[in-house]
Design goal:
Rossmann fold; globular; alpha/beta; 8 strands; 8-stranded mixed β-sheet
Length: about 280
């Protein structure tokens, strides 16, 4: 495809569910197929309101990007596994706090690629690349990424609900380690990940994972220690790796979301040894 036009290079398979389209459905969007709706309906057998899963993550993403842009002064972002454009996109949040902020979105889904043109028309400082988030070397060296960001200054890397789609065989720990090696000194990483808490809630996580895998979209809920290991070499900002509704840098949360146990998330700066 042409990353500058957003024209997809691959045929859209309407028989296989898509992470981006399923999230779009849960967020109330229109770019999804029956197979995506069926998957979400399957999840509803475990969580009666699966759309809340997407909104918990989306609200967290809004808070952390605002923190990175406003409080940390990060003005260039790489949003990998960005999904379909919806309310409060990263470039809109950044634009309120960094007048000349730039954002590169990355996703492998052809429908997401097809919306790249609309993103570019809305913001001259936003661009889209169709690529694999689990291949950081190829992604970072892509001309549309390398050319859009200043690699002599800190970059904000956003992995919002992405790494649980990278199974153990693809080694998400090595993937994140390589991102840390490639990012400039002072860069900041924000990530959320589906959490396996054990016990009764862990049984629900196992049920969702089975349903998603049976539908052709395998996902991995991981325990805390495995999620924490993704951020070795990252100095976490308070409150550290926590359930998403607990991640409020300006103080304690003003509400408790019953869905917050499904994800853990954090924001951290690369330590000097990783820069």
């Amino acid at each position: 495809m042409s990353e500058q036009t957003g024209v997809p290079s691959a045929r859209i398979d309407e028989t296989v569910p898509s992470v981006a389209r399923a999230y779009d459905y849960m967020l109330g969007g229109k770019e999804h197929f029956e197979v995506d709706r069926n998957l979400v309906d399957q999840i509803a057998g475990v969580f009666p309101e699966p759309g809340q899963l997407a909104w918990v993550n989306r609200r967290w993403m809004t808070r952390v990007v605002r923190f990175m842009a406003r409080d940390l002064g990060i003005d260039q972002f790489l949003d990998v596994g960005s999904g379909l454009p919806t309310t409060e996109n990263v470039h809109q949040i950044v634009g309120r706090h960094q007048q000349h902020g730039s954002v590169v979105y990355v996703d492998h889904d052809p429908i997401v690629a097809a919306h790249g043109r609309a993103l570019l028309e809305e913001s001259e400082r936003s661009s889209f690349v169709q690529g694999d988030l689990a291949d950081p070397d190829r992604l970072v060296s892509h001309e549309s990424v390398a050319g859009a960001l200043d690699w002599d200054r800190p970059v904000g890397l956003v992995h919002a609900a992405t790494l649980h789609w990278v199974d153990d065989a693809r080694d998400p720990w090595a993937v994140m380690r390589r991102y840390r090696e490639l990012l400039p000194s002072g860069s900041v990483v924000a990530a959320s990940h589906l959490y396996h808490p054990g016990g009764e809630e862990g049984e629900k996580a196992d049920d969702i994972a089975r349903r998603a895998t049976d539908a052709g979209m395998p996902v991995t809920f991981r325990p805390r220690d495995q999620i924490a290991a993704l951020f070795d070499g990252v100095e976490l900002f308070e409150p550290g790796l926590v359930r998403l509704a607990e991640w409020w840098p300006e103080g304690p949360p003003t509400f408790h979301d019953p869905w917050d146990y499904v994800f853990l998330g954090c924001v951290g700066r690369l330590s000097p040894r990783e820069a």
